[in-house]
Amino acid sequence: MIKSKLFFISLPSFLIFISWFFLAPTAAHPSGKQSGISAQRAAEYIHAVIKADRTIYSQYIVERLGETVSLKATEQWKNENTLPLPAQFLMVSSKIVNSKNLGIKYRLMSLWPINKNNAARSNQQRAGLKKVAKNPGQPHLWSVKKNGKILFNAVYPDLAVTKSCVHCHNNHPRSPKKDFKRGEVMGGIHISFPISKANNGSSLKDYRVAPEVVADYVHAILEADRTVYAKHIVNRLQKKNIIYASENWWEENTLLLPAQFLLNASDLIKNMRIGLDYKLISLWPINPHNGAANQFEHLGLEAVASKPFRPYIGSVQVGNKSFFRAVYPDFAVTPACVTCHNAHPKSPKHDFKLYDVIGGIVVSLPMDSD
Ligand code: HEC
Ligand code: HEC
Q1: What spacing in Å lies between the alpha carbon of 258 and ligand 2's midpoint?
Q2: Is the Cα dihedral 177, 162, 192, 137 positive or negative?
Q3: How many CA atoms lie within 13 A of 125 on its CB side?
Q4: What is the pLDDT of residues 46-95, one digit of tens each?
Q5: How far is it, in rounded angstroms, from Cα 362 to Cα 57?
Q6: Domain spans, the chain
Q7: Going by CA atoms, what residue is nearest to atom 13 of ligand 1?
């Protein structure tokens, strides 16, 4: 407790910090550092979340359940009581994010698309796909002016992370390429969002995004993937008695709990060591480990439980590094959330209702100075 208090800066300096930050998001830092997170870093965080959720879904759901209980992923998943294809999972989720008008947009595309709508839509996108196919270690970055706004663009490679990616594409009648191999680049993820330029410099590196905006982007993707998983996979397949979600999903050949889906993806991101971190907490945790870990998280959970419109934000100093943190409300978006939490013997609360705030998602971003 004492230790964590030391890390939190005092309220007055916190308010000054916040007002300086958000009132003048494009101003240069007096010490020469720049405010906000570099656009390149922001794209890296956004891509990390998309990729981690895509990997968990492809490996722990599609590949594992295909092998253990012959639960297939098919294009007509709604009618056939199967799993959505990994590409469809991403599309449903990106539609939710794009419709929020936060500024961020993303989409899956390829030089060899099964669906022609997934081809590149501009020369820049095509050039990006070619570049990441040749050199998957680096994203392709550019900026464009559109309707008076500058948009930052990035294409990241999309890799054949499981055998099933390769098998299904190589055998698909509409696939123009039949010799994909595991680990190869199959396409790319295009990400774009609006940016403002820092006042000294004109290269792509000088574009910054306010930290609360980056946290909103990261959270929007997390929330959309979480909703798609809970609604279209767990709730739908449980209702049809096809498969259910359980804590011992590995041993029982079942679906991961929605919380486990999020935490496994968060672990993948931690292992990437890019600084982004997120977790699930609650005032009424089933697992005591998911209670508020400090005063900031406690205040954040109370704030989003009573006013679930905006996140509770703040900053912390850990050693010589500063982090931006935001707590977002976590809603019971589907009946499965409510029934499972209310019935769980370890749950301290048994009267959740649909769309109640069950807890919070904490997003933590390092404030870089590059
Ligand atoms: C069971 C079949 C199946 C599996 C498994 C599968 N895909 Fe696909 N994939 C498709 C189909 C079908 C589409 C087209 C979906 C649409 O209509 O937009 C698609 C779309 C895509 C696209 C967009 C370009 C295109 O081809 O339309 C990419 C990139 C892609 N998949 C990569 C992957 C990767 C990587 C994996 C493994 C993580 C994977 N796919 C797993 C069938 C599959
Ligand atoms: C089948 C049961 C089940 C379903 C469905 C389920 N949860 Fe949970 N949830 C759990 C369990 C068990 C944990 C504790 C996991 C752990 O050990 O970390 C948990 C953890 C959580 C936590 C972290 C705090 C805590 O209670 O430990 C939140 C917040 C949460 N769930 C919200 C949701 C929401 C929102 C949904 C629907 C989108 C949902 N849950 C669906 C069983 C479930």
Answers
A1: 6
A2: negative
A3: 17
A4: 999 999 999 999 999 999 999 999 999 999 999 999 999 999 999 999 99
A5: 22
A6: 11-366
A7: 114
